[in-house]
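To whoever picks this up:

The nightly regression suite flagged GNAT family N-acetyltransferase as changed. Nothing in the input moved, so I suspect the structure step. Input below, exactly as stored in the fixture:
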Amino acid sequence: MIYRILQEPEINRHLFSGFIRRQKVDLCWRRSKDQWIIKSDPFTDDWDETDYSSLIASLKETVLLGGAVFGAFENERLTGFASVPPQRLGSCAQYLSLENLFVSEPFRGNGVGTRLFLLCADWAREHGGKRLYISAHSAVETQAFYRGLGCIEAQEYSRKHVEKEPFDCQLEYPL
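Regenerated output under the current build:
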């Protein structure tokens, strides 16, 4: 597996031609009366062409503004990616945000996501971040992944992230 920073010109629809976003979800973490509980809420998460267009525009913007987009490749095929925009969040500008972390379905469970996460954490630390902010999918498996890396509930919630994805769990990772 090869991990590297992506450049703006290579971020296009072709880059994602073999990428499988699909995630079948059953159990999710939900906030209920100031506590987290696990509830059954079955659905399948996937992207359509509109989602890919938005993703590509967002990743290009991240690079153009001075953030980082990392890619994982096997035989020149994208197997995972993650991004950290340069904008700071939080009352003391202590957070840099992990905006994307996705691994193609056939490659999950093989350390690709962990390696991408750690590359993003290193980049955020090198760019003055004190904590990595993660608005993470509420699926039990996704939460187990982030918690296993040492992520905890965010001390401050980003209103922008909560409004965009109200069921996400807001996490942070100390750098």
